[in-house]
């Protein structure tokens, strides 16, 4: 079974407590890891694989986005793999970091007509897949990644976030 060691950090913003976020992340990322391992055949090391979730605000993620992606604007989620990993490759003991911005998640949830928790769930799964080397830079990659997202979210009782949209 795929085991995760989830580290939570609240840096900025009006987030729930660490305990609440920990339980939320264990449910969401546990479902994602289980799907990848059982359904998609993703190998996992025998020891727990560590992933770090950083919860912040728009100002902080804007700085990170400008520094690492040359995009001087806030974004919803950023993923930073600890080591390059091709889809289906064996991860090391540290997967990497997922950084999520509160205000952007809130705005997008309202715009999409979704609850904050449902949108946060989607972004956690999305960021988690990036740590495993999945991407959406072209149609073929997007179809694979979005297919995984949709099936993982369905396992959590959520609808397809891409219904009616073209990949990419």
Automatic annotation (TrEMBL):
<dbReference type="InterPro" id="IPR020549">
    <property type="entry name" value="YbeY_CS"/>
</dbReference>
<dbReference type="Pfam" id="PF02130">
    <property type="entry name" value="YbeY"/>
</dbReference>
<dbReference type="GO" id="GO:0004222">
    <property type="term" value="F:metalloendopeptidase activity"/>
</dbReference>
<feature type="binding site">
    <location>
        <position position="130"/>
    </location>
    <ligand>
        <name>Zn(2+)</name>
    </ligand>
</feature>
<dbReference type="GO" id="GO:0006364">
    <property type="term" value="P:rRNA processing"/>
</dbReference>
<comment type="function">
    <text>Single strand-specific metallo-endoribonuclease involved in late-stage 70S ribosome quality control and in maturation of the 3' terminus of the 16S rRNA.</text>
</comment>
<keyword id="KW-0255">Endonuclease</keyword>
<feature type="binding site">
    <location>
        <position position="126"/>
    </location>
    <ligand>
        <name>Zn(2+)</name>
    </ligand>
</feature>
<keyword id="KW-0378">Hydrolase</keyword>
<dbReference type="InterPro" id="IPR002036">
    <property type="entry name" value="YbeY"/>
</dbReference>
<dbReference type="GO" id="GO:0008270">
    <property type="term" value="F:zinc ion binding"/>
</dbReference>
<keyword id="KW-0963">Cytoplasm</keyword>
<protein>
    <recommendedName>
        <fullName>Endoribonuclease YbeY</fullName>
        <ecNumber>3.1.-.-</ecNumber>
    </recommendedName>
</protein>
<dbReference type="InterPro" id="IPR023091">
    <property type="entry name" value="MetalPrtase_cat_dom_sf_prd"/>
</dbReference>
<keyword id="KW-0862">Zinc</keyword>
<dbReference type="GO" id="GO:0004521">
    <property type="term" value="F:RNA endonuclease activity"/>
</dbReference>
<keyword id="KW-0698">rRNA processing</keyword>
<dbReference type="GO" id="GO:0005737">
    <property type="term" value="C:cytoplasm"/>
</dbReference>
<keyword id="KW-0479">Metal-binding</keyword>
<keyword id="KW-0690">Ribosome biogenesis</keyword>
<feature type="binding site">
    <location>
        <position position="136"/>
    </location>
    <ligand>
        <name>Zn(2+)</name>
    </ligand>
</feature>
<comment type="similarity">
    <text>Belongs to the endoribonuclease YbeY family.</text>
</comment>
<keyword id="KW-0540">Nuclease</keyword>
């Amino acid at each position: 079974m795929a085991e995760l060691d989830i580290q939570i950090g609240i840096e900025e913003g009006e987030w729930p407590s660490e305990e609440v976020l920990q339980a939320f992340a264990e449910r969401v990322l546990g479902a994602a890891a289980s799907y990848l391992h059982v359904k998609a055949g993703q190998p996992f090391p025998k020891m727990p694989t560590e992933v770090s979730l950083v919860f912040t605000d728009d100002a902080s993620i804007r700085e990170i986005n400008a520094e690492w992606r040359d995009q001087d604007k806030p974004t919803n989620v950023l993923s930073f793999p600890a080591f390059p990993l091709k889809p289906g490759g064996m991860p090391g003991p540290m997967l990497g970091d997922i950084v999520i911005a509160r205000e952007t998640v809130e705005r997008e949830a309202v715009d999409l007509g979704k609850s904050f928790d449902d949108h946060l769930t989607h972004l956690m799964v999305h960021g988690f897949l990036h740590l495993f080397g999945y991407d959406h830079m072209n149609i073929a990659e997007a179809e694979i990644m979005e297919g995984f997202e949709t099936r993982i979210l369905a396992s959590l009782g959520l609808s397809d976030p891409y219904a009616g949209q073209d990949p990419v």
